[in-house]
Design brief:
Tachylectin-2, Chain A, 1% helix, binds 2-acetamido-2-deoxy-beta-D-glucopyranose, 306 residues
């Protein structure tokens, strides 16, 4: 049974730090939050010994910043999945003719690695209308637009399944999973997998040893898990993953809308972000946090912070 170490606590935790190309292990500590940056709606995944983090960038171009880490605590910026915000309204995105596209950029998107061809993919819905796909052989670039699908995969989570089929979980309240064609240029089919009874969004999709999980946030305080042992299309049962966990940042909102990732040793971590309107003008500053042991299979929840 694996442990899900969520990244939420006030507590100082221990984490294994392993340097690139260095087999030596050293034990270090970390405190939450681990990042003081506006890097909301994150997706996190691991390829071998390297963790990648993809985030929102809203109005900014280039879009969809990518960070890299070897220990989930120390992160560095390595590039962007979207070289230029142009999408279907390039005049507005390039601020020509007095036009603008403020906040019509990148949010709640997903980035993953595809083992079958060694490429990285980014997918996200823009303007509640079109979904765009960008791809790169090296996450530091060059990224190119490789697809556009005339469907909004709202708050999407990408999964390359064990048989290499690309799936995208998306939606709010009601959650669907679309099957894409092999080169991610078209939708093959889409299936409603869950009819919600309250508002959820921010899907992240995982196949963990043949069990499928869709993480969703109930903004902006709880993280829920849909779990299916009967295949990717369900049936799914909904259980709480984290309920108003502590943030480590007095006065902030609750950590929410993140992803889970395992270490090479099999420990699981949950990485959410925080809205911190106390410390930023305009859009809330967001941070990303860590803490201590959770049980993935049992859906044991973080303690409420109130
Ligand atoms: C690092 O330490 C962990 C825990 O002690 C151990 O399981 C793992 O094998 C070590 N990794 C390396 C590369 O030495
Ligand atoms: C990950 O490790 C496997 C096995 O060593 C290797 O074939 C693959 O190229 C590595 N992937 C990346 C992205 O480094
Ligand atoms: C946006 O720019 C990319 C090159 O970065 C180009 O491939 C794509 O066609 C452009 N899209 C639009 C809508 O102009
Ligand atoms: C959505 O995109 C289509 C192009 O596929 C375009 O014709 C339509 O105007 C767009 N709708 C909105 C509301 O932007
Ligand atoms: C969810 O689906 C139900 C039908 O099962 C529908 O009545 C409801 O309007 C949908 N809600 C949303 C937010 O799409
Ligand atoms: C969702 O609701 C629709 C309409 O009521 C129904 O047809 C569908 O079977 C439901 N799907 C799930 C997964 O519950
Ligand atoms: C998945 O299977 C591997 C190998 O059997 C096991 O080590 C690991 O704990 C399993 N992971 C989970 C989350 O159950």
């Amino acid at each position: 049974m694996a442990f899900l170490r969520s990244l939420l606590g006030l507590a100082v935790g221990a984490v294994m730090i392993s340097a690139q190309g260095n087999t030596a292990n050293t034990t270090a500590t970390y405190t939450n939050p681990i990042l003081w940056e506006d890097l909301a709606d994150l997706d996190v995944f691991r390829v071998n010994d390297t963790y990648y983090y993809s985030a929102d960038s809203f109005a900014f171009s280039p879009g969809a910043p990518i960070l890299k880490s070897y220990d989930l605590v120390n992160w560095e910026f390595i590039g962007h999945s979207i070289p230029t915000l142009n999408f279907s309204d390039p005049t507005a995105y390039s601020l020509e003719d007095g036009q603008q596209a403020y906040v019509r950029g990148v949010w709640a998107s997903s980035m993953r690695y595809r083992p079958s061809n060694g490429k990285f993919y980014w997918i996200g819905c823009v303007d509640f209308n079109q979904s765009y796909i960008y791809s790169a052989s090296d996450p530091t670039g060059e990224w190119t637009q490789t697809g556009q699908i005339a469907t909004c995969y709202y708050d999407c989570g990408l999964l390359f399944d064990d048989d290499d089929t690309p799936y995208v979980a998306y939606g709010n309240t009601n959650i669907s999973i679309a099957t894409l064609n092999s080169d991610l240029t078209a939708q093959v089919s889409t299936t409603r997998i869950f009819n919600g009874t309250f508002y959820i969004e921010g899907s992240r999709l995982y196949n963990i040893n043949g069990t499928y999980y869709v993480l969703n946030t109930q903004p902006a305080s709880r993280e829920w898990t849909l779990k299916s042992s009967g295949g990717i299309f369900g049936p799914y049962e909904q259980q709480i993953l984290a309920d108003r966990p502590p943030s480590g940042t007095p006065g902030s909102g609750y950590p929410h809308q993140g992803g889970i990732v395992d270490t090479p040793e099999g420990d699981w971590y949950y990485m959410p972000f925080i809205d911190d309107s106390q410390r930023a003008a305009g859009r809330p500053q967001s941070t990303c946090t860590h803490s201590g042991p959770r049980n993935l299979e049992g859906f044991v929840v973080a303690e409420a912070d109130e």
